Amino acid sequence: MVEANAINYYSPARWVVSKKAGEGTHTTISGALSDASSGETVFVMSGTYTENLTLVPGVNITSLEESRTTGNPNVIIVGKNTLTAAGSVVISGIRLQTDSDFILAVTGAAASQVALIDCFLDCTNNTGITFTSSDAGSGITLQDCNGNIGTTGITFFVSTSPGRLGGEHVSISNTGLTETPSTSSAGGISFSDSFFTIPFTITGTATIGMQNSILSNAATDTTCITASGTGSTFFSPKVNLSRTFLDSKDAANGAVNIAAANHLRMIGECDVRTAMSNALTGAGILNYTPINLSTTTSTSITTETPLAIGPEILVASNLLTTGNLVSDIGTASNQWKTVHAGNITFNGGSDFLDDYEEGTFTPSLIGSTGSIGAQTYASQVGNYIKIGNQVTLWGSLVLTNKGSWTGIATLAGFPFTGNAAFTGGRQFVDGRDLTVTGAAPYLVTNDGTVASNTSATLQAAGAGVSGLDQNYSDIANNTAIFYTFTYQE
Predict the structure, then answer these.
(1) pLDDT band of 165, cuts 50, 70, 90
(2) Where are the domains of the chain?
(3) Quick one: pLDDT band at residue 437, thresholds 50, 70, 90?
(4) Which residues fall within 8 angstroms of residue 1, CB to CB, at 6 or more apart?
(5) Residue 391 — φ and ψ, nearest 5°?
(6) More reliable by pLDDT, 457 or 132
(7) How many CB atoms lie within 10 A of CB 485?
(8) Helix (H, G, I), strand (E, B) or coil at 90
(9) Contact indicator for 411, 395 with CB cutoff of 8 Å
(10) Where are the beta strands (DSSP E) in 185-333?
(11) Which residue has the higher pLDDT, 488 or 29?
């Protein structure tokens, strides 16, 4: 049983709104806002409230905890919520739904701040947010919010304010397949760890930033971000993307179109998907670290300048241009100097790495004489990593019939031919259901035999036995062998 107080006999909260008369202090949210003072919270019980609210600075609105359901609140406000005065308001745990007008309007000339937390923005018949406050200290912040654009001709937001609109963990769907962009002509748009399926258009002095986010417009074939206007510099780019995925499919201008005199910065290996020939377009300036593009795609921005921390464009995860990757590591700068698709060069060019590869191979077990006969396997699994000329294998094989091989047992099927000059140490092999020649306790590979070959013979070692070739006759029909092996190509 909750404690009563002098205002509300059903809850310790001072202001409670319920559709059921007598269950709270008010039956309308607007009524509770009229009575509440700065520093207080209006708690709202489950139900649909069709009201246009004038928000009160310092008075927050939240659903009662038992009225919340994650991602789909069961407290619904159908109508417009407006803040004009200076101060802040937090709305949490509420489903906000358009009623042929905006869900949220931050207007006027004061430093008005609205935070939406754990809300759902249901844009059924109108654009969701209008942000027109002329005060640069104003702002709209969304945290852990979902939403949907339910029809064409509307969008997520329109902003002319010099303030900031943004947030984190925001996901806006687009079941209405609108192609109408969310727009900003001043101030900053900034989101992180978020997901959008709508286009953005940035003009005037506005900027936009996305970090660890996804902009997926494949369903509407629209350019993810179109940017023009003024006020863009290298240190304050018009569009700033970090570790962000963009998909514009058949949009004629690609995923991003940047106008002349404006900067597009893409860092942290952004990923761009489009079916068009150019993923990034415009007469502007692109500053970038590696960008991963779809296979048949390039870029077409007038000025493209790599940044000093790893500057190349990747196509299908491969570097687009050729040359050497030269590093200043070990010198005072301790940064990448230039990046291309050929070698990674260290120490002024005296040392370089020209290859890295991962893959699979099919390991097999053969004899130095005889033939395969009726040999069969229950499994053959092999993986490798090749760094420069060094190859490391992980192999396993299980026989069901050892076949007609004779002579020396040999591991075969290596993915690269060994270096003729290679003389390495022996490496251990684990086996099951086989007799080790000479009753030695373990097997090793004879590294020397891989030179100019793609195989290595097995030898017994230990217990006084060293370098004794393993006879294939000791292999059984159910022998299993597991090994790692490193050699030079």
Answers:
(1) very high
(2) 1-181, 358-488
(3) low
(4) none
(5) -115, 125
(6) 132
(7) 21
(8) strand
(9) yes
(10) 188-192, 195-196, 200-202, 207-211, 214-216, 225-227, 239-242, 245-249, 256-258, 263-267, 271-274, 278-288, 291-293, 298-306, 313-315, 318-319, 324-327
(11) 29
CATH number of 1-181: 2.160.20.10
Is 79 within 8 Å of 101 (Cβ atoms)? yes
DSSP 441: S
**Cβ–Cβ < 8 Å for 193, 162:** no
**Dihedral sign of CA atoms 469, 472, 477, 480 in order:** positive
Question: In angstroms, how far is the first alpha carbon of the chain from the final one?
Answer: 77
Task: Give the mean pLDDT of the chain.
Answer: 83
CA distance 250 to 238: 24
Cβ atoms within 10 Å of 379's Cβ, excluding its own:
11
CA-angle at 380, arms to 376 and 383, nearest 5°: 160
- Residue 396, Cβ density class (10 Å: 0-12 exposed, 13-18 middle, ≥19 buried): middle
CA distance 217 to 203: 20
On whether the CB atoms of residues 425 and 472 are closer than 8 A, the answer is no
Q: What is the pLDDT of residues 393-414, one digit of tens each?
A: 888 999 999 999 999 888 889 9
Q: Is the dihedral of CA 477, 479, 483, 487 positive or negative?
A: negative
Q: How many CB atoms lie within 10 A of CB 52?
A: 14
Using alpha carbons, select from 486, 489, 483, 488 the residue that is nearest to residue 392.
486
The CA-based diameter of the chain, rounded to the nearest angstrom, is 99
